[in-house]
């Protein structure tokens, strides 16, 4: 089986080395055939299995959509916009669900917008709708009114009317990194995948088994750009508190700064770990994200914090996405040397 690697990751490389069951897939955690290759002066390798890649239509290395070269979350948002209904890639929240999804055949089971971008005709149709929307907007000069009545279009206009005070009450916005077994994460770049956050925590605490296998231990809401993690024991949580780099805000609050890829996720204790507090409606999540941006700005306004966190949200993956807008297409490798 040929790996699904995008042109940006692969470069001109055609020589790949294969390691059967060489690693655990970052999404489904099953062992998979890893491909290594040298491109752009460094060794690159596949991090998710072929089936997970097919289900989401993403590159096995960079996890960007294979067709559009953008993060899955952004792809789904664009499609939600033009279809007027929510398109989302819901990742498994627990081990059982993970197994359940992993068993599905990626050829027929597509998650979120993968059903569109993995099909040539559906992609053509979507592109036409995007073009029509843009043209209509240009013609009328009023982007929001001219477009189809998508949920996002109307919602962004009315975001001011969305009330999220109940959500904000449940979130530790004034909290610090102090104790407890659960934590609130924010300033999560949309291009940072859940597995990357899980990986970063795993590396800090030195074991992948920090998660409770029977209850939800990780919730990430990419629209609100925040989430939560919960450790199965106080010892593991304490190890996390000790290991995660900390910074002080201007108000003197100590917060954690979890480094994931090139972005810095802010961390505070969250005794009331609660999925519903991250918002359920799309508009709530959007507004929550905007509110949290203000908290991030406050966090970073301290001279001490600014020194160690110069730029907010400058993910490597994001850069990749923007550099590839010149319509680089997925190339299924045809010439594999083993
Ligand atoms: Zn997988
Ligand atoms: Zn790639």
Automatic annotation (TrEMBL):
Residues 136-156, 299-338 are annotated as: Disordered. GO terms for molecular function: pre-mRNA binding; U6 snRNA binding. Keywords: RNA-binding. GO terms for cellular component: Prp19 complex; U2-type catalytic step 1 spliceosome; U2-type catalytic step 2 spliceosome. InterPro entries: Cwc2/Slt11, STL11/RBM22-like_N. Transmembrane segments: none annotated. Residues 3-117 form the STL11/RBM22-like N-terminal domain. The keyword RNA-binding applies. The keyword DNA damage does not apply. Involved in pre-mRNA splicing. Facilitates the cooperative formation of U2/U6 helix II in association with stem II in the spliceosome. Binds to RNA. This is Pre-mRNA-splicing factor SLT11. It comes from Lachancea quebecensis.
């Amino acid at each position: 089986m040929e790996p699904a690697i995008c042109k940006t990751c692969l470069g001109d490389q055609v020589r790949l080395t294969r390691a059967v069951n060489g690693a655990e897939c970052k999404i489904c955690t099953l062992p998979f055939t890893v491909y290594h290759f040298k491109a752009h002066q460094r060794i690159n390798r596949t991090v998710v299995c072929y089936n997970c890649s097919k289900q989401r239509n993403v590159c096995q290395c960079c996890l960007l959509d294979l067709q559009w070269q953008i993060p899955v979350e952004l792809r789904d948002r664009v499609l939600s916009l033009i279809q007027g209904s929510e398109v989302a890639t819901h990742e498994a929240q627990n081990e059982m669900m993970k197994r359940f999804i992993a068993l599905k055949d990626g050829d027929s089971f597509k998650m979120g917008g993968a059903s569109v971008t993995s099909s040539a005709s559906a992609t053509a149709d979507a592109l036409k709708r995007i073009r029509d929307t843009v043209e209509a907007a240009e013609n009328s000069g009023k982007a929001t009114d001219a477009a189809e009545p998508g949920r996002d279009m109307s919602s962004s206009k009315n975001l001011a009317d969305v009330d999220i005070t109940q959500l904000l009450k449940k979130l530790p916005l004034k909290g610090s990194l102090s104790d407890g077994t659960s934590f609130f994460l924010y300033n999560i770049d949309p291009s940072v995948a859940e597995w990357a956050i899980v990986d970063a925590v795993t590396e800090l605490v030195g074991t992948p088994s920090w998660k409770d296998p029977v209850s939800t231990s990780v919730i990430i809401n990419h629209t609100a750009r925040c989430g939560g993690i919960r450790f199965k024991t106080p010892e593991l949580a304490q190890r996390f508190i000790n290991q995660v780099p900390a910074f002080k805000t201007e108000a003197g609050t100590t917060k954690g700064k979890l480094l994931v890829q090139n972005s810095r996720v802010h961390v505070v204790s969250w005794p009331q770990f609660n999925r519903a507090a991250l918002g359920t409606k799309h508009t709530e999540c959007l507004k929550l994200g905007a509110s949290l941006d203000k908290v991030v700005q406050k966090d970073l306004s301290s001279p001490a914090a600014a020194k160690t966190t110069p730029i907010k949200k400058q993910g490597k993956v994001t850069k990749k996405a923007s550099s590839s807008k010149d319509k680089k297409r997925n190339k299924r490798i045809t010439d594999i040397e083993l």
